Every structure is written in C-alpha cells, then in structure tokens.
Amino acid sequence: ERHELQIAIDGPAGAGKSTVAKLVAKQLNLFYVDTGAMYRAIAYKALTSGIPINDEEKVSQIAQTAQVVLDHSEERLVWCDGQNVTQAIRNPEISRAVATVAAYSKVRERLVELQRREAARGGVVMDGRDIGTHVLPGADLKIFLTASAEERAKRRWIELRNAGKDIPFEEVARDMQRRDRQDTEREVSPLEPAPDAKILDTTGLKVEDIVAEILRLAQEG
Ligand code: CDP
Ligand code: CDP
Predict the structure, then answer these.
(1) What's the 220 CA to ligand 1 centre distance in angstroms?
(2) I need a surface site. Which of 9, 86, 199, 202 has the fewest CB within 10 A?
(3) For residue 62, is pLDDT > 90?
(4) What is the DSSP letter of 37?
(5) Mind telling me which InterPro entries this protein's record contains (predicted)?
(6) ipTM computed for the complex
(7) What average pLDDT does range 61-75 have in this prediction?
(8) Among positive and negative, which fits the CA dihedral 194, 24, 42, 145?
(9) Is the model's pLDDT at 73 over the cut of 90?
(10) Which numbered ligand comes closest to the C-alpha of 131?
(11) Whole-prediction pTM value?
C-alpha cells in the first residue's frame, strides 16, 4: 500500500534532532512535527496551573483536555489552549519538569494520538524519543541521532547563551544528564533505538553533513 514518506528521528537531548529534522523536512517538502514541544506544553500547563508535577492523576487530567497545536508555518509556533507558548516551553524550569510528565502513560497516550493524527495528514519528519519504536513503527527511515554527552551539553549551553539565558555550563550538563536518565529508564516507551534504526553519532559533525547523510539514506529507500 502506498503512503507518503515518514522519517523518524529519535535520540537524547542536544543530539541535533530538531535542527536536522527541520532541514530534512524542508528539503523533502514534508511536515515537521516536534513531539518534544508537545510534552513541554503539557509540563508548562501543569506548572502554570499550580499542579504539582509529581501528581500523576492531575497532570494526566490536564493532558486530556489540553489543546496542543503545532503551527506548520516557518515560525513553528507552539500553542497550548490558545496561548502562544513557543518561547516559554524552552525555559529551564520546563526542561527540568518535562521528563517527569513524559513518564506518565496517560499523558503519552494522549500525545501519541495527536502525533499519529499529524502523520495522517501527509508525509512527515517527526522527532522525539519513541517515534521509531512506538509512534510510527512503520516509518520508511528511522534515525537515532546521538553525540557525546559533553558535546550535547555544550551545544545546548551555547544555544541558551545565544538566547540571552546565561546558565552555568555545569548546570546545563547536569540537568541534561538527569533528563536523559529519566527518559532512558522510564517504563513506558523509554528512549532507545528501534531495532531497525540507523544510529548516527554526530560528535564533531556539522549540521549540513548530517542532513546530507539522512537525505542520502532517504533516497536509498
Ligand atoms: O530538544 P530536547 O532534546 O531538549 O528535548 P525535546 O525534544 O524538546 O523533548 C523534551 C522532553 O520530552 C524529553 O526529554 C522527554 O522527556 C519528552 N519526550 C518524550 O518523552 N517523547 C517524545 N517523543 C518527545 C519528547
Ligand atoms: O533537538 P535536539 O535537542 O536533539 O537538538 P537541537 O535543538 O536540534 O540542537 C541543539 C543545538 O546544537 C542547536 O543550537 C544546534 O544548532 C546545535 N547543533 C550543532 O551545533 N551541531 C550539530 N551537529 C547539531 C546541532
């Protein structure tokens, strides 16, 4: 049965998933779906509603009713209940809370449903933690992007600094390590490469070279 191209990109924080996924999507004229932004939006809603992040039942409840919308324009705006949360979801407090929220099975069920709905609209490049293993198990191409923990933390630290957020490198590295551990060790859809994923270690690689490699793999079919 014919369908449009689906590319799954998974990996730990700072591996370059969203940067690379956006460029690949543009080249191949596919939708780009940032699933991490959806989990971040739920964490944002919980925190701003005064719900303790450890309250699985209450967080699951707000996830059921949250209207999370990813805009497909160049700006890639992220909306939650009609509010533009694009910037707010990148804050360190959200980064620290998001993996706890993402471990809740009911939160995941709801967001996976939205993600599959996005994929049903047409060809996609989707990035996250469980895209190749769970969300799109039939994807045409599965990439597991990684890089050394040191380099990933450095990339994120520079990114935050460029956004005017001066956070000590050690703090960025520690938060990232903790989040990766939470994502890898959780019971529901943990971060792991799908058996049929191509693992790309991007340590020392430039964005354009990674994009070129993925385009090559996509063409190989
Ligand atoms: O961009 P970064 O790698 O920092 O993170 P993200 O892609 O925005 O994802 C934020 C968090 O959402 C991850 O650390 C996971 O806890 C969760 N997530 C997930 O569990 N499953 C996904 N498919 C995507 C994100
Ligand atoms: O989505 P993920 O957390 O995997 O990573 P990202 O947000 O795409 O990339 C994190 C930062 O690293 C961004 O500022 C990228 O521009 C940068 N980056 C890099 O310098 N070299 C690479 N090969 C990949 C990403």
Answers:
(1) 28
(2) 199
(3) yes
(4) H
(5) Cytidylate_kin (IPR003136), Cytidylate_kinase_dom (IPR011994), P-loop_NTPase (IPR027417)
(6) 0.98
(7) 93
(8) positive
(9) no
(10) 1
(11) 0.97
Tell me the H-state helices in 49-135: 56-65, 92-101, 105-120
11 in a labelled binding site = yes
DSSP state, residue 80: E
Q: Please report, rounded to a whole number, the percentage of residues in the chain having pLDDT higher than 70.
A: 99
Which two three-digit tokens encode residue 214? 């993925």
- Asked if residue 17 has its Cβ within 6 Å of ligand 2, the reply is yes
- In the structure, what pLDDT confidence band is assigned to residue 74 with cuts at 50, 70 and 90? confident
Q: Is the CB of 130 under 6 A from ligand 1?
A: yes
99's tokens? 């993996």
**Residue 14 assigned to a binding site:** yes
How far apart CA 1 and CA 53 sit, in angstroms, is: 43
Which helix (H) or strand (E) segment is 28 a member of? helix 17-28
Q: State yes or no: pLDDT of 34 exceeds 70.
A: yes
Tokens of 107: 């939160």
- 16 Cβ inside 6 Å of ligand 2: yes
Does any ligand 2 atom lie closer than 6 A to the CB of residue 37?
no
Q: What gap in Å lies between CA 5 and CA 165, rounded to an integer?
A: 37
